Amino acid sequence: xxxxxxxxxxxxxxxxxxxxxxxxxxxxxxxxxxxxxxxxxxxxxxxxxxxxxxxxxxxxxxxxxxxxxxxxxxxxxxxxxxxxxxxxxxxxxxxxxxxxxxxxxxxxxxxxxxxxxxxxxxxxxxxxxxxxxxxxxxxxxxxxxxxxxxxxxxxxxxxxxxxxxxxxxxxxxxxxxxxxxxxxxxxxxxxxxxxxxxxxxxxxxxxxxxxxxxxxxxxxxxxxxxxxxxxxxxxxxxxxxxxxxxxxxxxxxxxxxxxxxxxxxxxxxxxxxxxxxxxxxxx
Length: 283
Ligand code: PMP
Fold this sequence. Notes:
CATH superfamily of the largest domain: D-amino Acid Aminotransferase, subunit A, domain 2
Order of helices and strands: EEHEEHHEEHEHEEEEHEHEEEH
Number of strands: 15
CATH class of the largest domain: Alpha Beta
Structural class: alpha+beta
Oligomer: single chain
Bound molecules: 4'-deoxy-4'-aminopyridoxal-5'-phosphate
CATH topology of the largest domain: D-amino Acid Aminotransferase, Chain A, domain 2
Shape: globular
Number of domains: 2
Strand content: 25-35%
Number of helices: 8
Distance between the termini: 25 Å
Largest sheet: 9 strands, mixed
C-alpha cells in the first residue's frame, strides 16, 4: 500500500508524520471518509467541498486547490490499483511547537490513505442492527459545530465505547435538549406513515454525504421528506428506522434500547431506498 503524504507516496510502514503535528497533539485538523465504487470516487466534489468547509470553519488553510485535491485522490487510487476502496483524507494543522497557537504551524499536512473496504457484515443488512441510546450527549453546535468533520472525535468515541459495552455496533446520540442528533459515525432516519424523517443539522448532526444522497433519492422516488426535531419516542414508535453513512451505506435498525421497531425486520421503504442507493453506486 502506498500512502500519500504532502505530495509524495510512501510505503505503509514509512508513511509518518511529526510528533509535533498539531493533528496529533490537539486533534487539530479535519478529515473525510470517502468511497470509490468500480474505480469512480463517489460524490468526490461533495466530499472535497465538505473538507474545505470544515477547514475554513477552523481557520485552516489547505495547502492545495480543490482541483489539485481531486487529482491527488484519484492518483492515490490509481497508484494502489484499487477500484472499490475506502479513502481516508486527512488535513492536519501541521508541525508546530507544544503550544496551542495554530500560527506556529506554517503548513498543513495532507494525508491520503486508500485501502480496501471494511464492510459491515452482510447479515446486518438482512437482519438489521440493534442500537442503544448513549448517556454521552452530542457536543452542542454552539461549542463546536458537529458539521465540522474534525480530528477531534472523542465525543463520538465516548459514545462508541458505550455501544461496545452494550454489544452494539452503532449508537444513537441525543443533543443537550434531548432531541435525536445522529449516531457515532452515521446519520439516522425514520419512517412513519410513508413519510421520511431525519433530524435537522442544527440538532447536532454532520451533513452526511449519504444523508443528502438518500434524501434526494427519496424525494425523486416520491417520498415526502421532513427534517424536524425527533425524540426517542418518535424512533421507538416509528414504522422503520435506518442509518446512513459512507461505510454503512443504508443500514436497517430493528431494535432501539430494547424496543423492537415495527415487526423487528428491515422495512419495505428501507429496503427500497437501499436498493436505489446501491443502483446509484453501481453495486
Ligand atoms: N455522522 C458522523 C459523526 C460521521 O462521522 C459520519 C461519517 N462517518 C456520518 C454522520 C455520515 O456521513 P457520510 O454519509 O458523509 O459518511
